Amino acid sequence: MIIEALRVFVTVTEQSHFSRAAELLNISQPGVSLHIRNLENEIGAKLLHRSPKQVRLTEAGHILYQKAKQILRLYVEAKQDVQLLQDQVTGTIHIGASFTIGEYVLPKQLAAFAAQYPLVAIEVTIGNTEEIVHAVRTNELDIGLIEGETHAGDLHITPNMKDEMIIIAPADHPLTNQRFINGEMLQNQVWVLREIGSGTRAYSDQFIQGASITPKRTYVFNSSQSVKESVVAGLGIALLSRWIVRKELELGELTELRLRTARLERSFSIIRHKEEKTMMAAQMFIQRLLAAEK
Question: Are 90 and 120 in contact (CB under 8 A)?
Protein backbone atom coordinates (compact mmCIF):
# COMPACT_ATOMS: atom_id res chain seq x y z
CA MET A 1 0.00 0.00 0.00
CA ILE A 2 1.31 3.46 -0.89
CA ILE A 3 0.63 4.72 2.65
CA GLU A 4 3.01 2.14 4.10
CA ALA A 5 5.69 3.03 1.56
CA LEU A 6 5.34 6.72 2.44
CA ARG A 7 5.58 5.90 6.15
CA VAL A 8 8.80 3.98 5.51
CA PHE A 9 10.20 6.81 3.37
CA VAL A 10 9.45 9.45 6.04
CA THR A 11 11.02 7.31 8.77
CA VAL A 12 14.18 6.68 6.73
CA THR A 13 14.44 10.40 6.00
CA GLU A 14 14.07 11.41 9.65
CA GLN A 15 16.47 8.75 10.91
CA SER A 16 18.96 9.27 8.05
CA HIS A 17 19.61 5.54 8.20
CA PHE A 18 17.97 2.39 6.80
CA SER A 19 18.77 0.10 9.73
CA ARG A 20 17.49 2.54 12.38
CA ALA A 21 14.29 3.02 10.38
CA ALA A 22 13.89 -0.77 10.13
CA GLU A 23 14.21 -1.09 13.93
CA LEU A 24 11.63 1.63 14.57
CA LEU A 25 9.17 0.16 12.06
CA ASN A 26 9.83 -3.41 13.19
CA ILE A 27 10.53 -4.64 9.67
CA SER A 28 13.66 -6.02 8.01
CA GLN A 29 16.22 -3.75 6.36
CA PRO A 30 15.63 -5.47 2.99
CA GLY A 31 11.93 -4.73 3.51
CA VAL A 32 12.74 -1.03 3.98
CA SER A 33 14.87 -1.04 0.84
CA LEU A 34 12.06 -2.70 -1.12
CA HIS A 35 9.54 -0.06 -0.04
CA ILE A 36 11.90 2.74 -1.06
CA ARG A 37 12.67 1.11 -4.40
CA ASN A 38 8.97 0.58 -5.17
CA LEU A 39 8.23 4.19 -4.20
CA GLU A 40 10.99 5.49 -6.49
CA ASN A 41 9.56 3.40 -9.32
CA GLU A 42 6.09 4.77 -8.61
CA ILE A 43 7.30 8.39 -8.49
CA GLY A 44 9.71 7.96 -11.38
CA ALA A 45 12.63 9.65 -9.63
CA LYS A 46 15.50 8.90 -7.28
CA LEU A 47 14.52 9.99 -3.78
CA LEU A 48 17.57 9.24 -1.66
CA HIS A 49 21.35 9.48 -1.91
CA ARG A 50 22.68 6.39 -0.09
CA SER A 51 26.08 6.02 1.55
CA PRO A 52 27.43 3.59 4.20
CA LYS A 53 27.16 6.26 6.91
CA GLN A 54 24.00 8.19 6.11
CA VAL A 55 21.07 8.81 3.79
CA ARG A 56 20.36 12.20 2.20
CA LEU A 57 17.34 13.41 0.25
CA THR A 58 17.56 14.25 -3.42
CA GLU A 59 15.74 17.32 -4.71
CA ALA A 60 12.79 15.11 -5.60
CA GLY A 61 13.04 13.51 -2.16
CA HIS A 62 12.73 16.88 -0.45
CA ILE A 63 9.52 17.60 -2.36
CA LEU A 64 8.02 14.20 -1.60
CA TYR A 65 9.02 14.29 2.08
CA GLN A 66 6.97 17.44 2.75
CA LYS A 67 3.96 16.09 0.86
CA ALA A 68 4.29 12.64 2.45
CA LYS A 69 4.05 14.14 5.93
CA GLN A 70 0.82 15.88 4.94
CA ILE A 71 -0.60 12.73 3.32
CA LEU A 72 0.15 10.59 6.39
CA ARG A 73 -1.43 13.16 8.71
CA LEU A 74 -4.56 13.37 6.54
CA TYR A 75 -4.76 9.58 6.37
CA VAL A 76 -4.73 9.31 10.17
CA GLU A 77 -7.36 12.05 10.44
CA ALA A 78 -9.57 10.30 7.88
CA LYS A 79 -9.36 7.01 9.78
CA GLN A 80 -10.28 8.73 13.01
CA ASP A 81 -13.22 10.56 11.42
CA VAL A 82 -14.56 7.24 10.13
CA GLN A 83 -14.08 5.63 13.55
CA LEU A 84 -15.99 8.48 15.16
CA LEU A 85 -18.99 7.52 13.05
CA GLN A 86 -18.86 4.22 14.91
CA ASP A 87 -18.44 5.96 18.30
CA GLN A 88 -14.91 4.59 18.65
CA VAL A 89 -11.81 6.37 19.87
CA THR A 90 -8.77 4.51 18.60
CA GLY A 91 -5.22 5.15 17.50
CA THR A 92 -1.93 5.67 19.31
CA ILE A 93 -0.96 8.52 21.62
CA HIS A 94 2.73 9.28 22.07
CA ILE A 95 2.96 11.02 25.44
CA GLY A 96 6.06 12.54 26.97
CA ALA A 97 6.28 13.50 30.63
CA SER A 98 8.93 15.03 32.83
CA PHE A 99 10.04 12.83 35.72
CA THR A 100 7.82 14.12 38.52
CA ILE A 101 4.68 13.91 36.39
CA GLY A 102 5.63 10.69 34.61
CA GLU A 103 6.48 8.77 37.77
CA TYR A 104 3.96 10.13 40.29
CA VAL A 105 0.99 11.77 38.52
CA LEU A 106 0.57 10.23 35.06
CA PRO A 107 0.11 6.50 35.92
CA LYS A 108 -3.23 7.04 37.68
CA GLN A 109 -4.54 9.18 34.82
CA LEU A 110 -3.42 6.63 32.23
CA ALA A 111 -5.13 3.76 34.06
CA ALA A 112 -8.45 5.62 34.12
CA PHE A 113 -8.12 6.66 30.47
CA ALA A 114 -7.24 3.13 29.34
CA ALA A 115 -10.30 1.76 31.12
CA GLN A 116 -12.54 4.22 29.27
CA TYR A 117 -10.83 3.90 25.86
CA PRO A 118 -9.41 0.38 25.62
CA LEU A 119 -8.80 0.62 21.85
CA VAL A 120 -6.26 3.43 22.25
CA ALA A 121 -2.61 2.40 22.33
CA ILE A 122 -0.40 4.54 24.58
CA GLU A 123 3.35 5.01 24.42
CA VAL A 124 5.06 6.99 27.17
CA THR A 125 8.48 8.62 27.20
CA ILE A 126 9.88 10.02 30.44
CA GLY A 127 12.68 12.58 30.42
CA ASN A 128 13.56 15.94 31.86
CA THR A 129 11.56 19.01 30.86
CA GLU A 130 14.07 20.15 28.25
CA GLU A 131 14.02 16.72 26.55
CA ILE A 132 10.21 16.56 26.47
CA VAL A 133 9.92 20.08 25.02
CA HIS A 134 12.41 19.16 22.28
CA ALA A 135 10.55 15.94 21.43
CA VAL A 136 7.21 17.78 21.08
CA ARG A 137 8.80 20.47 18.92
CA THR A 138 10.27 17.82 16.59
CA ASN A 139 6.93 15.91 16.43
CA GLU A 140 8.31 12.82 18.15
CA LEU A 141 5.54 13.21 20.75
CA ASP A 142 1.86 14.15 20.41
CA ILE A 143 1.58 15.59 23.92
CA GLY A 144 4.12 16.74 26.49
CA LEU A 145 3.45 17.07 30.21
CA ILE A 146 6.07 19.25 31.83
CA GLU A 147 6.92 20.86 35.15
CA GLY A 148 8.18 24.41 35.16
CA GLU A 149 8.19 26.76 32.18
CA THR A 150 8.96 26.80 28.48
CA HIS A 151 8.84 29.80 26.18
CA ALA A 152 8.92 27.98 22.84
CA GLY A 153 6.86 30.05 20.41
CA ASP A 154 5.83 27.04 18.30
CA LEU A 155 4.02 25.30 21.16
CA HIS A 156 0.54 25.52 22.66
CA ILE A 157 1.05 25.67 26.44
CA THR A 158 -1.89 24.87 28.71
CA PRO A 159 -1.39 25.11 32.50
CA ASN A 160 -2.86 21.99 34.07
CA MET A 161 -2.34 21.88 37.82
CA LYS A 162 -0.33 23.40 40.66
CA ASP A 163 2.54 21.52 42.23
CA GLU A 164 3.77 22.31 45.74
CA MET A 165 7.54 22.34 46.17
CA ILE A 166 9.04 21.71 49.61
CA ILE A 167 12.49 21.65 51.16
CA ILE A 168 13.35 18.24 52.58
CA ALA A 169 16.09 17.13 54.95
CA PRO A 170 17.23 13.89 56.58
CA ALA A 171 15.27 13.07 59.72
CA ASP A 172 18.29 13.83 61.94
CA HIS A 173 19.33 17.10 60.27
CA PRO A 174 19.96 19.96 62.76
CA LEU A 175 17.39 22.22 61.04
CA THR A 176 14.58 19.76 61.76
CA ASN A 177 14.50 21.15 65.31
CA GLN A 178 13.28 24.49 63.93
CA ARG A 179 9.54 25.07 63.61
CA PHE A 180 10.17 27.43 60.68
CA ILE A 181 13.28 28.29 58.72
CA ASN A 182 14.41 31.27 56.64
CA GLY A 183 17.00 31.92 53.95
CA GLU A 184 19.71 32.72 56.48
CA MET A 185 19.38 29.28 58.07
CA LEU A 186 19.83 27.69 54.63
CA GLN A 187 23.22 29.32 54.10
CA ASN A 188 26.27 27.05 53.86
CA GLN A 189 24.20 23.88 53.53
CA VAL A 190 24.89 20.90 51.26
CA TRP A 191 22.27 20.78 48.49
CA VAL A 192 21.28 17.80 46.35
CA LEU A 193 20.08 18.93 42.94
CA ARG A 194 18.68 17.62 39.67
CA GLU A 195 20.61 18.04 36.40
CA ILE A 196 20.53 21.10 34.16
CA GLY A 197 17.49 20.86 31.85
CA SER A 198 15.23 19.54 34.60
CA GLY A 199 12.22 21.62 35.63
CA THR A 200 12.99 20.80 39.25
CA ARG A 201 16.56 22.05 38.80
CA ALA A 202 15.35 25.28 37.21
CA TYR A 203 13.01 25.88 40.15
CA SER A 204 15.72 25.03 42.71
CA ASP A 205 18.20 27.40 41.05
CA GLN A 206 15.58 30.15 40.99
CA PHE A 207 14.82 29.65 44.69
CA ILE A 208 18.48 29.52 45.77
CA GLN A 209 19.40 32.61 43.76
CA GLY A 210 16.27 34.50 44.80
CA ALA A 211 17.00 33.89 48.49
CA SER A 212 20.70 34.77 47.98
CA ILE A 213 21.71 31.37 49.37
CA THR A 214 25.31 30.24 49.03
CA PRO A 215 25.51 26.42 49.22
CA LYS A 216 28.44 24.81 51.01
CA ARG A 217 28.50 22.16 48.30
CA THR A 218 26.16 20.67 45.70
CA TYR A 219 25.62 17.15 44.38
CA VAL A 220 23.80 16.57 41.08
CA PHE A 221 21.67 13.56 40.07
CA ASN A 222 19.63 12.97 36.92
CA SER A 223 16.49 11.66 38.62
CA SER A 224 14.31 12.84 41.47
CA GLN A 225 14.34 9.34 42.94
CA SER A 226 18.13 9.55 43.30
CA VAL A 227 17.87 13.01 44.87
CA LYS A 228 15.30 11.73 47.36
CA GLU A 229 17.31 8.64 48.31
CA SER A 230 20.45 10.74 48.72
CA VAL A 231 18.67 13.05 51.16
CA VAL A 232 17.32 10.04 53.08
CA ALA A 233 20.91 8.78 53.31
CA GLY A 234 22.03 12.08 54.81
CA LEU A 235 23.88 13.61 51.86
CA GLY A 236 22.20 17.02 52.13
CA ILE A 237 18.93 18.91 51.67
CA ALA A 238 16.85 19.33 48.52
CA LEU A 239 13.86 21.09 47.00
CA LEU A 240 11.40 18.58 45.50
CA SER A 241 7.73 18.21 44.66
CA ARG A 242 5.56 17.01 47.53
CA TRP A 243 4.31 14.28 45.16
CA ILE A 244 7.76 12.66 45.25
CA VAL A 245 8.29 12.52 49.01
CA ARG A 246 4.81 11.86 50.44
CA LYS A 247 5.54 8.30 51.59
CA GLU A 248 8.93 9.14 53.08
CA LEU A 249 7.44 12.06 55.03
CA GLU A 250 4.69 9.81 56.41
CA LEU A 251 7.25 7.16 57.41
CA GLY A 252 9.51 9.69 59.08
CA GLU A 253 12.43 9.00 56.74
CA LEU A 254 12.43 12.65 55.66
CA THR A 255 11.44 15.90 57.32
CA GLU A 256 9.96 18.97 55.69
CA LEU A 257 11.73 22.22 56.48
CA ARG A 258 8.89 24.74 56.63
CA LEU A 259 9.47 28.27 55.39
CA ARG A 260 7.95 31.30 57.10
CA THR A 261 7.09 32.75 53.68
CA ALA A 262 4.22 31.71 51.40
CA ARG A 263 4.29 28.16 50.12
CA LEU A 264 6.34 27.40 47.04
CA GLU A 265 4.40 26.43 43.91
CA ARG A 266 4.98 25.85 40.23
CA SER A 267 2.71 24.81 37.36
CA PHE A 268 2.42 21.55 35.49
CA SER A 269 1.60 22.23 31.83
CA ILE A 270 0.36 20.38 28.76
CA ILE A 271 2.27 21.24 25.59
CA ARG A 272 1.42 20.54 21.94
CA HIS A 273 2.88 21.64 18.63
CA LYS A 274 0.96 24.57 17.13
CA GLU A 275 1.28 23.34 13.55
CA GLU A 276 0.18 19.76 14.17
CA LYS A 277 -3.49 18.83 14.48
CA THR A 278 -4.21 17.02 17.75
CA MET A 279 -5.70 13.60 17.03
CA MET A 280 -8.99 12.57 18.63
CA ALA A 281 -7.45 10.13 21.12
CA ALA A 282 -5.01 12.80 22.27
CA GLN A 283 -7.85 15.33 22.58
CA MET A 284 -9.78 12.92 24.79
CA PHE A 285 -6.74 12.40 27.01
CA ILE A 286 -6.13 16.15 27.35
CA GLN A 287 -9.79 16.63 28.31
CA ARG A 288 -9.37 14.03 31.05
CA LEU A 289 -6.28 15.75 32.40
CA LEU A 290 -8.00 19.14 32.52
CA ALA A 291 -11.20 17.73 34.04
CA ALA A 292 -9.26 15.96 36.78
CA GLU A 293 -8.32 19.29 38.32
CA LYS A 294 -11.77 20.91 38.25
Answer: yes
